[in-house]
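Hi there. Long-time user, first ticket. I'm pasting a complex I've been working with (about 591 residues overall). I'd like to know whether the download I got is complete or cut off, because the file seemed smaller than I expected. Thanks.
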Amino acid sequence: MNPTKERAGIVPHLVMGVMAIYFLLPFWWLLVAATKDNDGLFLSAPLWFSDFHLVDNLRTVFSQENGIYLVWLRNSALYAVVSGVGATAVSALAGYAFAKLRFPGRTKLFALLLGLIMVPATALVLPTYLLMSKAGLVDSIWAVILPSLLNPFGVYLLRVYTHESVPDEMLEAARIDGAGELRVFTSVALPAMRPALVTVLLFSMVASWNNFFLPLVMLSDDHLFPLTVGLRTWYMSATLGNGGEALFNVIVTGALVAIVPLIAAFLLLQRYWRGGLTIGAVK
Amino acid sequence: MTEVQTKPAAAPAAAGPPARRSPVKNAREAATGWLFVLPFVVLLVAFLLLPMAYAFKLSLYRSTLIEGEHFALFENYTQAFKDPLVREGVLRVIVFGLIQTPVMIGLALLAALLIDHATSRFARVFRLAAFVPYAVPVVIGTLMWGFLYSKDTGPLGSVLHIDFLSSSWVLASLGNVVTWQWAGYNMIVLYAALQGLPREVYESARIDGAGPAQIAWRIKTPMISSAIVLATLFTILGTLQFFTEPLILQPLNPGSITQHYTPNVYAFNQAFSFQQYNYSAAISFLLGAVVFVGSYLFLFATRKRSAL
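Hi, the file is complete. Here it is re-exported in full:
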């Protein structure tokens, strides 16, 4: 390699190697386990293949309970896309306004927002459920989507980013050219905000795809469940053994299918992830 | 970057706006501003302020078969303070946080310093490997570890002969799940901060005879202390709200993971297993208040380092 550049020695690489095994071992186990039938899962060596049943397992995952897994998969995707896009749109409007528009109460509202970022989301799930049940909104897709549209941290990130990266002169020039405020926002500010928008979109989509507590509380119709809640019901009935067959291999394969799209998207978009965390970290 | 740019821009701006800004324009800008923040404000009221207020109101009432719902002031709170199950759960998350947080942040810092130091292809692969668990939903990550811990299906239980979910091991086992899931995320946050440091500083230290380990520990680490503080803060916030992991592993060993294992699990069970909404609201509100005050105190205590 390049002799002028100092190369890290063997010890740092050894440490990284050990850590990498730790982080990847569960994935290797999951991949191997998804190829086994229920008996093989319990009887064969956990970290190596025995009989190959991946195709059977996949077939069972998608046919179990009239293909409810596919419904869960679709629900997860729907909640993630609608919540992600919605939360990003709301945060973009508010972040832009906080950064670039002067309106009475702006500083106070923003100070309030900074305080509210610290309010733990899980402590709000139960009261939100009770309020929503009074409004008759519980057990509908809106019970999961509407609360996910609120993203105070996203507003904060977009305000910081917009404040630094969208020059006032550009907005002023567009106004002088006769553009209305909405037009200034959509055609001048939004394109300049794009890197931060992608970040907020990715993070709110993942948060929504991974969400568990909110849908667990809000939904009782299993046809509205996202994957996280659905897989838990399978897992519960398998471990507690109430009635149904204990199909652990189906749960394992279901878990594999659930994380594959996310990891694929994540590897493709890793550039944006890192960029996004930098916006948050540097400040 | 701002030093150079603001000066020339500031001069015309100082002369410009007061003359250009007519009252009509200001009013229009104010109206637009409010219109733009309106959706956010509506959501903020509906899903944050209102639930908070409602939880507080609920927590002040009690509901009994004889008297129905009646105002009870802080009775629920005194009950919560006296409740040994609440105390046990709070103590558990504190112990958990005191051990798990330093371990995970330490691991994340070590990993971040390593990938910052090593520029090999392996370092890039490692960076990805460590971050991937973050992309896994907590429910599924916990399910995976549940299988790995199992004496029947897991390599760990059968090789090490440890019952990972027995009452003496369960807290450490849960800590491992959390560490596995979030260490890589924190590593990237810290790595991003390291990337922002000026490289020349290391050069002069190297000339003074400092080795890579000394540079990492004595120069890089102090310089990213604000990022470390923030990562610690978010970890503590998460720890206090500990919920999904114990709930998922509970059926595997209900004896060691109880219905009141953490304050959040307890509040959840009070509401949905026992319909004790008022008591549950008091616990939730108390927990929320503790997290809120705690994070402010933490930020205040470390404000010099975090520069917030």
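A couple of notes from our side: Chain A touches chain B through 96 residues (CB under 8 Å). DSSP finds 14 helices and no strands in chain A.
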